[in-house]
Amino acid sequence: MIKVLITGGQGQLAQALAHTQPKHQYLFATYQSKQALDITHIQQVKRYLQNNPINYLINCAAYTQVDHAETDQKRAYTINAIAPGYLANLAQEFNFTLLHISTDYVFEGLLAKPLIEGMTTNPVNYYGKTKLAGEQNILPYNIPAYIIRTSWLFDVLGDNFLTRLLKRSQQEKHIGMVYDQVSSPTYIQDLATTLWKIILQIHENPSLYQPGIYHYANEGVTSRYDLAWTIHKIGNLNCNIIPKHSSDFPGFANRPSYSVLDKEKIKSTFGLTIPHWQESLAYCLHNYRQ
């Protein structure tokens, strides 16, 4: 039996994991919301694990409001930095494998070349600092931990770039989007499918797959403006997408100018073929219209 616990069970990635969960007769997954299992309370999680042994934990619980994190610092740090350390501590005690989701925002974004896992990190916003601290609180533990950094998540569920743009297009005629921030969009369903593949492969032969940091995003590179323009075109949105410089939005937290993640490590390690973001976006919007 492969027993998997997913924290943040009501979030968009957890929903995608539920949707893409393989029909494997020996795979059993439990999705726990923050209300049912709060990862910031180590004793609560410990009691749960004492009663419910697991093989894997996918940590989807996170503080993801980048702009609010600048002022809501204590809460962001507790969820994104301290709690992952708790989970690593418990992984060591209860002997399970930890999969933790991190972000491209751990990078400064000044290098215009794909970012490999070992490059120097230097976050430009507080959200990125908390996520980097979460990684650093996991890595010292002698456990099988896989930290998956990803970027620009989108889906038709939850609060993300795509859903916000679809909503705004019904209320606004002209929508400004920055053209000086570049990365790789990630379809959440693709990320979820990959996480299941990783678990099944590790379970099959754990000695083949080195724990550590991995990068995952869809193939291809784009700006936020071009991503919005493509959504506008495919989705037939009734609005205009206007190119803007990031300096035109002074009230927002800083973002990396260039945060394209190099994915060669995860592709070669787990034998992945990753779809292009435009292909996945078209599929996503097609399903939305259906």
From TrEMBL:
<comment type="similarity">
    <text>Belongs to the dTDP-4-dehydrorhamnose reductase family.</text>
</comment>
<protein>
    <recommendedName>
        <fullName>dTDP-4-dehydrorhamnose reductase</fullName>
        <ecNumber>1.1.1.133</ecNumber>
    </recommendedName>
</protein>
<feature type="domain" description="RmlD-like substrate binding">
    <location>
        <begin position="3"/>
        <end position="289"/>
    </location>
</feature>
<comment type="function">
    <text>Catalyzes the reduction of dTDP-6-deoxy-L-lyxo-4-hexulose to yield dTDP-L-rhamnose.</text>
</comment>
<dbReference type="InterPro" id="IPR005913">
    <property type="entry name" value="dTDP_dehydrorham_reduct"/>
</dbReference>
<dbReference type="Pfam" id="PF04321">
    <property type="entry name" value="RmlD_sub_bind"/>
</dbReference>
<dbReference type="GO" id="GO:0005829">
    <property type="term" value="C:cytosol"/>
</dbReference>
<dbReference type="InterPro" id="IPR036291">
    <property type="entry name" value="NAD(P)-bd_dom_sf"/>
</dbReference>
<dbReference type="InterPro" id="IPR029903">
    <property type="entry name" value="RmlD-like-bd"/>
</dbReference>
<dbReference type="GO" id="GO:0019305">
    <property type="term" value="P:dTDP-rhamnose biosynthetic process"/>
</dbReference>
<keyword id="KW-0521">NADP</keyword>
<comment type="pathway">
    <text>Carbohydrate biosynthesis; dTDP-L-rhamnose biosynthesis.</text>
</comment>
<dbReference type="GO" id="GO:0008831">
    <property type="term" value="F:dTDP-4-dehydrorhamnose reductase activity"/>
</dbReference>
<keyword id="KW-0560">Oxidoreductase</keyword>
